[in-house]
Amino acid sequence: MEQVFEYLPLLFVAFGAVIVLVSVRGIVHGRRFVRGARRVPGVVTDVATTFTGRGEHLKASRRPVLTFTTAEGREVTAESLVESQLGIGRETDVLYDPEDPTKAAPAGDAGVGGGYAGIVIGLIAAAVGLAVFAAFSGHFTPSGGTENSCQIEPADGTSEPVDCPPGMDVG
Fold this sequence. Notes:
The protein is of the alpha+beta class and 171 residues long. Helices cover 33% and strands 27% of the residues. It has 3 helices and 7 strands. It has helices spanning 2-7, 10-36, 115-137; strands spanning 38-52, 59-69, 75-79, 91-96, 104-106, 150-152, 160-162. Strands 3-2-1-4-5 form a 5-stranded antiparallel β-sheet, covered by helices on one side. Strands 6-7 form a two-stranded antiparallel ribbon. Helix 2 runs antiparallel to helix 3 (115-137). The protein starts with a helix and ends in a 9-residue tail after the last strand.
């Protein structure tokens, strides 16, 4: 049972790795969207607000509803793919997917989405998990720079650290 707890910090490593991978994936998809998107003028005609959490943990996310005319002359109204603080009536350049114009975002907010913060958080979680695993699994022993941690006890009752004889297993 102790071995289960010994390896429990590796969940932080796995959790951190997943956060990093999801964040990198988001950045790649955001950049791919921006590269393939068309830019046209548009206007914010509404703001879709969704709430998550409860009480003091209540969080609102605001996605502007964009109205624009595609390069082909089709008028489209679509909720933004990303959150933005743009208000109703605000004119903005819109990036949209020519294959599916309902996939659109304000040009200034497209491709951002917090991916870099996710990478940092994921790396911190992985580093903490590795550090805790190393500290509690015996792979890291702070023995003052010596490999072995033997002690000698003189007659006066004190103890002093000394190098262990070669071949002596102290584990």
